[in-house]
Design a protein that fits this description.
This protein is an alpha/beta fold. The protein has a single domain (4-233), classed as P-loop containing nucleotide triphosphate hydrolases (Rossmann fold, 3-Layer(aba) Sandwich), CATH 3.40.50. The chain is 35% helix and 26% strand. α3 packs parallel to α6 (138-150). The protein binds adenosine-5'-triphosphate (ATP). Adenosine-5'-triphosphate binds at residues 13, 16, 18, 36, 38-44.
Length: 234
């Protein structure tokens, strides 16, 4: 069964329509990457999938169930987690407290924080668990944001430009962790990414977006850095 099916989805900010009938299918345990110029609607697509923006027309099916009308907390309970652009770490809370926020809307709340699992993926968060979120570097905050999303034990992770403003060495580590999660846990990832080298390291499949619609898609092996660049620069 497909992880997620997006069928003719239309979404808008007030009167301003941004998604004009988006179609896409995500396979389980794969990294699917959406690429396209700035402003074509990639972030809007993730927000709509998470339920932060209503589906005006069309449908979203998750594990075969129509979730088009579900609010974000029910999507989270169903197994979708979202790491927004800019990470949204709470600066005045500690690393540990930020992680605990990931449990709030989780169906696994009673099980508590999967600390061993999180700290084995991101050892730096164990060392820094008493440090304030606001005192971490950009790369450490990104690791914390991904870890906080994983706390709810999702089957689908939505990731918006995780490499924005972080060092290449940390981006490399994050790429390896994402591949490990897909391989070992069967996690499905929907990634929005503009950095071609990172996208090539992690992606199994690409979708290319322009003006609120998907204009092409295909397996990662079918695209070179040069062809990817064309889609971003169009
Ligand atoms: N809250 C909002 N209210 C109104 N318009 C918005 C809002 N957020 C985004 N938009 C507009 O929606 C369009 C798509 O924005 P979106 O952020 O989804 O694009 P994107 O492809 O993710 O671009 P980027 O790579 O720059 O983040 C843009 O024209 C943007 O100005």
């Amino acid at each position: 069964m497909s992880e997620l099916i997006i069928d003719q989805v239309v979404a808008a900010y007030g009167q301003s329509t941004i998604l004009w009938g988006v179609n896409m299918t995500l396979q389980p345990a794969r990294v699917t990457t959406v690429m396209g110029r700035n402003g074509v609607g990639k972030t809007t697509l993730l927000k709509t999938i998470m339920g932060l923006l209503p589906v005006k027309d069309g449908h979203i099916h998750f594990h075969g169930q129509d979730v088009s009308k579900l609010p974000p907390f029910k999507k989270a309970k169903a197994g979708i987690a979202y790491v927004p652009q800019g990470r949204e770490i709470i600066p005045k809370l500690t690393v540990y407290e930020n992680l605990q926020l990931g449990l709030e809307a989780s169906a696994h709340r009673k099980a508590g924080l999967p600390e061993d699992e999180i700290y084995s993926l991101f050892p730096i968060l164990k060392d820094f668990r008493k440090r304030l979120g606001g005192n971490l570097s950009g790369g450490q905050q990104q690791q914390l944001a991904i870890a906080r999303a994983l706390v709810s034990r999702p089957s689908l992770l939505l990731l918006d430009e995780p490499t924005e403003g972080i060092q290449p060495s940390i981006a490399q580590e994050i790429a390896q962790i994402l591949r490990q999660l897909v391989k070992d846990k069967g996690l499905s990832i929907l990634l929005v990414e503009q950095k071609i080298d990172f996208a090539q390291q992690v992606s199994d499949h690409y979708y290319f977006m322009d003006r609120g619609q998907m204009i092409a898609n295909g397996n990662a092996g079918d695209f070179t850095a040069a062809t990817l660049q064309q889609y971003i620069a169009m």
